[in-house]
Amino acid sequence: MAGLSIWHVLIFAIVVILLFGTSKLKNLGKDVGGAVKDFKKSIKEDEVATPNLQEPRTLEHQNTHDVNSTVKH
């Protein structure tokens, strides 16, 4: 584990808890969890809102779309 024993990790955790306190660490955990949840939600909404980008588009398909959009009705 890159030269770190369990004792090094334990001492580091104790120092962090003493510096920041458990309430700040708890709030930090909630904030990070909320940010991850919002990020996942926005990714799912993007996948639903956008068309299937896996299909290759040909120039012919693109030109047909451009011609149709420039024609005045």
Supply the key terms.
cell membrane, mainly alpha, 2 helices, transport, single chain, transmembrane helix, TatA/B/E, protein transmembrane transporter activity, 73 residues
Q: Quote the average pLDDT.
A: 78
Order of helices and strands: HH
Multimeric state of these chains? single chain
Q: Beta-strand percentage? A: under 5%
Structure summarized in a few sentences:
It holds the Pfam family TatA_B_E. The chain has 73 residues and is mainly alpha-helical. The chain contains 2 helices and no strands.
Structural features, described:
By secondary structure, the chain is an all-alpha fold. It has a domain of about 30 residues. About 75% of the residues lie in helices and about 0% in strands. It has two helices and no strands. The relative contact order is 0.05. The model has no long low-confidence stretch (mean pLDDT about 80).
Question: Which secondary structure elements does this structure contain, and how are they paired or packed?
Answer:
Blueprint: H1 6-49, H2 59-70
